[in-house]
Amino acid sequence: xxxxxxxxxxxxxxxxxxxxxxxxxxxxxxxxxxxxxxxxxxxxxxxxxxxxxxxxxxxxxxxxxxxxxxxxxxxxxxxxxxxxxxxxxxxxxxxxxxxxxxxxxxxxxxxxxxxxxxxxxxxxxxxxxxxxxxxxxxxxxxxxxxxxxxxxxxxxxxxxxxxxxxxxxxxxxxxxxxxxxxxxxxxxxxxxxxxxxxxxxxxxxxxxxxxxxxxxxxxxxxxxxxxxxxxxxxxxxxxxxxxxxxxxxxxxxxxxxxxxxxxxxxxxxxxxxxxxxxxxxxxxxxxxxxxxxxxxxxxxxxxxxxxxxxxxxxxxxxxxxxxxxxxxxxxxxxxxxxxxxxxxxxxxxxxxxxxxxxxxxxxxxxxxxxxxxxxxxxxxxxxxxxxxxx
Length: 390
Prior knowledge:
Elements: E1 2-4, E2 10-16, H1 25-43, E3 48-53, H2 56-64, H3 66-78, E4 81-82, E5 85-87, H4 111-127, E6 134-139, H5 150-174, E7 177-182, H6 193-203, E8 208-213, H7 214-219, H8 224-233, E9 238-243, E10 245-249, H9 255-262, E11 273-276, E12 282-285, H10 288-291, E13 303-309, E14 319-321, H11 323-334, E15 343-346, H12 363-383, E16 387-388
Parallel strand pairs: 2-3, 2-15, 3-4, 3-5, 5-6, 6-7, 7-8, 8-9, 9-15
Antiparallel strand pairs: 1-2, 1-16, 10-13, 10-14, 11-12, 11-13
Helix pairs in contact: 1-2, 1-12, 2-3, 2-4, 4-5
């Protein structure tokens, strides 16, 4: 979906396909048929943006076989779909029964992460619509904090510098610019937008920036305006933004709230949980179950958990979502005189991880839910003065 900003800029809205498990190119093509095109039809659009997640094997197949890349591009065109952004955070196995900490491997100290991201950038230049020359890729925020060392930090810095050189060369070769954004996430080396400033200013390259995920932003209790102002002051580009909402519990001390939260403690994904203490210090656990056990987390102030809840359907009381944080961030991102980013992506990959009573019972309900999320995001954009384009 495309929107015209009042300054004339085109802003793109997509939804991320990591909600649909697929490790191979055949799986990606099936996604387009079984999920993405039905969502487009529900929205009554001739064209729908999708943020493709390409696992290692699918990305390698597309990068090494020009015919396969042309075939995917033709399938996108045939189904009324377009791609301007890729989700390069998960490397493989995102549809596995248990993902948890595995999603953070390989990290940016591992050569495989650089090679995979380079392949994604090359593939994206072949998928961009004919009338566009700019694409984006979101990626791991360096690595998980507990395995990080000075030596790994040095290796990651060198890898990002190499990536910047490769992106420059790719732009010279193809005439298409791809930017890569580190996506701050709780528990990682780069947990907040503030944590991103030092490594990204050290790299100092306009093609390497930040992907602002509004669920992660909210989980870490970051103020969107403060965070985005700091990025702007440091001249760190917002490459893309993932529009998402976290789980919010206003009174975690109450038994009814604990019981409601426990329904979201599931075995597949990691649900980092955070609260702000009396001194303003952020406290956290790596997973929701840990927070609910004993006194691992102070419970005198609200808790937020890294659980991407559907944008249009906040959890039932006594829980809610951080949709207000998303709205504040979006106002700052695209509501000003000029947009801070041109690529927006709804990323609710946890539809099948919701409590059983809330999960879609099949493809039809899932498509309905994704379409409803995109419709909400569309309305937020038009309320900010953007005009939906055909």
